[in-house]
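Moderator note: this is an archived Q&A kept for reference. The question asked for a predicted structure of one protein chain; the sequence and the answer are reproduced below.
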Amino acid sequence: MKTETSRYTIVAITLHWVMAALLLFMIWLGWNMDDNEVRFQLHKSIGILLLFLTLVRVIWRVMNPPPPLPEEMPA
């Protein structure tokens, strides 16, 4: 039996921050590429990893719904 919680799961929080850090690093790589093949390949690899993590995050979200909004917050 699941109990209702008022927090996101540790997996959801970790996925969120790992993806945010990877996205910022990917943007930095894109701005500083300068025809560097290694950075180009790293940029592509991180993009593919982010796509995979997005799929994992969506599946996790479907299986573990977010906590309800506080009662003080109108819909």
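Archived answer notes: DSSP finds two helices and no strands in the chain.
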